[in-house]
Amino acid sequence: MDLSYILNEFAEERENYFNAVSPPIMQTSNFVFNTVADMRNAFSDEYAAWLYSRGNNPTVDILRKKLAALDGAEDCLVFNSGAAAIFVVVLANVKAGDHIVSVDKPYTWAQKMFDVILPKFGVTTTYIDGRKIENFERAILPNTTVIYLESPNSWDYALQDLKAVAELAKAEHITTIIDNSYCTPLYQKPIEMGIDISMQTATKYISGHSDTLGGVLSGSKAMMEKIFNSEYLTVGSGIQPFNAWLLIRGLRTLPARLDRITATTRKVVDHLKNHPRVETVLFPLDEHFPQYELAKAQMQGACGLLTFIIKAETITQIEQFCENLQHIFMAVSWGGHESLIIPKCSAIQPADFNPANKEHRMLRLYAGLEDPEYIIKDLDQAFEKLV
Ligand SMILES: *Cc1c(COP(=O)(O)O)cnc(C)c1O
Questions:
Q1: What is the pLDDT of residues 4-39, one digit of tens each?
Q2: How confident is the model at residue 387 (pLDDT cuts 50, 70, 90)?
Q3: Which atom of ligand 1 is nearest to the CA of 203?
Q4: For the purposes of burial, counting CB atoms within 10 Å of the CB of 172, is it exposed (0-12), middle (13-18) or buried (19 or more)?
Q5: What's the CA gap between 373 and 286, in Å, rounded?
Q6: 178 C-alpha vs ligand 1 centroid, how far in Å?
Q7: How far is CA 75 from the centre of its chain?
Q8: Cα(54)–Cα(66) distance, rounded to whole angstroms?
Q9: pLDDT category, 65, cuts 50, 70, 90?
Q10: Which residue, judged by its Cα, is nearest atom 5 of ligand 1?
């Protein structure tokens, strides 16, 4: 299926709604039945029925079909947030006594689940450096049921060799789950590389406008149906129709936005690499990135997020740099129209700051849809004010 077809036409049955170009927001909680037999059918197979919007909803259905097609998956489920999607997919694939192998430093709320919630139910997690396939081989135990991946990571962009991990996991009958948020399915297709379930936050690039949250799971119909019938309906965190509609709207412009951000990011990376106040720039598709070859082989693109290590002796200098930015906002998240920055030192106490620790001097920048020169000028004036 062509990308343009998926984003502009696929799954939209316009004859059902007056041939409107934009699909309706089916803002309803429930659906009416004319016969008891119809109602009985819906109860017996809610996955295939219009019964109640905690399960299926027509606006959400359009979004699901488009996102599944983008991932090259049989089906997908869309949640109220990426965190909900992570919680549900892991919960659905472990039982008491099971073991998970996860890449180290996964997304904050994935890590919270592994460290705090799952141990209460006798599920343990081993964190590994996922850059080496041997580390997966060594960490797998007889009770390992899930391998949890995030490639690239959204701070240091560490990658895993997805084909190699998928092959290893298949041989051991282990389910593989990836957080594909950095790339989106436009820039990386984990399912085609053999990964079982691809998760992404829709809050970032799919929404694209910093105005809604959402989370996506894509995989086989059997897996999605299993999750739908238990965890999806029980947790009750499916996306709401209006938010689904915003995400459909976001999809229309996704390739154009990623193209623009890709070009801008290249300029910002090159500028920062040559800046005297910058020690290192981390970006997966930069020639000097340690895993550049792997990134080139398994990703079709990269954009937006990059991390630079600023030359600074004190935490105050880094704070001043961030506070002197006039247009780049200091805020979490990414994928919207607006450029953003997060200093790593915002997550540590000032007394613990150690300039010898490169991580403490990391700044994560998201390049948005502004003019590249506008972003670069803002960075430069903040650098100039550094004393
Ligand atoms: C934001 C994010 C998530 C969680 O998504 P929400 O929609 O905020 O819940 C998961 N993984 C990564 C890498 C993210 O950046």
A1: 999 999 999 999 999 999 999 999 999 999 999 999
A2: confident
A3: 7
A4: middle
A5: 20
A6: 12
A7: 17
A8: 19
A9: very high
A10: 82
Of 230, 223, 239, 246, the C-alpha closest to 75 is 223
Q: What is the pLDDT of residues 210-222, one digit of tens each?
A: 999 999 999 999 9
The helix (run of H) or strand (run of E) holding residue 137 is helix 133-139
Give CA–CA dist 169/164, Å, rounded.
9
- Is there a contact between 137 and 161 (Cβ–Cβ < 8 Å)? no
Q: How far is the CA of 242 from the centre of ligand 1 (A)?
A: 20
The 278-282 sheet, strands edge to edge: 278-282, 305-310, 362-366, 340-343, 329-330
Model confidence at 371, pLDDT cuts 50, 70, 90, reads: very high
| Burial class of 280 by CB neighbour count within 10 A (0 to 12, 13 to 18, 19+) | middle
Q: What is the mean pLDDT of residues 234-262?
A: 98
**Count of all residues that appear for the chain in the document:** 387
Query: Long-range pairs for 38-46 at CB < 8 Å and ≥24 separation?
Result: 46/228, 46/229, 46/233
pTM of the model: 0.97
> Closest by alpha carbon to 215, among 205, 201, 196?
201
CA distance linking residue 191 with residue 185, whole number of Å = 9
Residue of the CA atom closest to atom 4 of ligand 1: 82
pLDDT tens for 277-319 read 999 999 999 999 999 999 999 999 999 999 999 999 999 999 9
Q: 142, 154, 156, 155: which is closest to 180 by C-alpha? A: 154
Dist CA 110 CA 114 (whole Å)? 6
Q: Given a cut of 90, is residue 180 above it in pLDDT?
A: yes
Look-up: residue for tokens 């690039």? 205
At residue 148, the pLDDT reads: 98
Under a CB-based contact definition with an 8 Å cutoff, are residues 97 and 122 in contact?
yes
User: Which domains does the chain carry?
Assistant: 3-252 (3.40.640.10), 254-384 (3.90.1150.10)
Expressed in angstroms and rounded, the spacing between residue 88 Cα and the centre of ligand 1 is: 14
Cβ count near 174 (within 10 Å) = 21
